[in-house]
Amino acid sequence: MAFTLSPIGRIETPWATPAECPRNGRQAQPAPLCRVVMEAEYLPGLEGVEGFSHLLLLYWMHRAGVARLNFTPPFDTRRRGVFATRAPFRPNPIGLSVVAFEGFEAPGVLRVRYLDCVDGTPLLDIKPYLPSTDAEPGASMGWLAPHATPRQD
Amino acid sequence: MAFTLSPIGRIETPWATPAECPRNGRQAQPAPLCRVVMEAEYLPGLEGVEGFSHLLLLYWMHRAGVARLNFTPPFDTRRRGVFATRAPFRPNPIGLSVVAFEGFEAPGVLRVRYLDCVDGTPLLDIKPYLPSTDAEPGASMGWLAPHATPRQD
User: 3-class secondary structure for A29-77?
Assistant: First the structure.
């Protein structure tokens, strides 16, 4: 069983290679402005997006490399399963970021912050962020708790 | 350009058809217990997942039907772009849910709440939910604000 994805756009960030990318979208402070550039055929799907302060972006981590099911993270001393991390080298390398949406620069060009992916990453989906179902500010972070990026907002 | 996904497991829910599914994972109260059943080969990837209270699940909405770029939602009077909604019939029908993780029922079988997908949905990825990057409790919900599902937690 296999499923096929097609990009609906591309993501522009300041990072040319995976090695340059921050550990997460909140690590670089201030978080730089990035752009989402939609393919023209998908522009009708953006109607109504302008009212949301935050969006969920799904993208294809095309530079992730071969999947590894477990590994010792660089800032840790124990082996962790990839599903207990946000590492890019996953069986299905779909990246997910909650971004602040700062409006349209042009039709189909969105200004966003809090990305951590490489420049040119293929975009798969945009979803509105809904705090009623997506926000769990009190969630516990397991082994990652000592490594949490402090929030500046 | 196209990318290929393979399921890493399947999701078991009480809903046999899309028509039976709740509008979102918080609508049914109390939210029923669901199960994520991983393929055996991916079990090593779960090491360390046990410490997280919430997870992000990505899944393939195999019953979504043909993509529609815009449409009038059933509880609305205006046309909306699909990227301003969480509707399943998207160009890349990847579903995303923030779920409460209630532990392992068996190795590779996770007990979770707050799903809204149909029984048998193919699982694509599990990520730990990190409030430091994923929680935006004050986000504004645009046209969906009047339709927000009240939180009971």
Answer: CCCCCEEEEECHHHHHHHCCHHHECEEEEEEECCCCCCCCCEECCCCCC
CATH superfamily entry for domain A9-130: YaeB-like (2.40.30.70)
Measured between CB atoms, does B141 come within 8 Å of chain A?
yes
State whether CATH 2.40.30.70 applies to domain B9-128. yes
pLDDT of res. A153: 67
- Please write the tens of the pLDDT for every residue from B76-131: 889 999 999 999 999 999 999 999 999 999 999 999 999 999 999 999 999 999 99
Task: Write the ipTM.
Answer: 0.96
Q: What residue ranges do the domains of chain B occupy?
A: 9-128
Residue-wise pLDDT tens digits, A92-105:
999 999 999 999 99
B residues 20-79 lying closer than 8 A (beta carbon) to A: 24-26, 42, 44-54, 56, 58, 60, 62, 69-70, 78-79
Tokens, residue A79: 């082996």
> Is A6's CB within 8 Å of B133's CB?
no
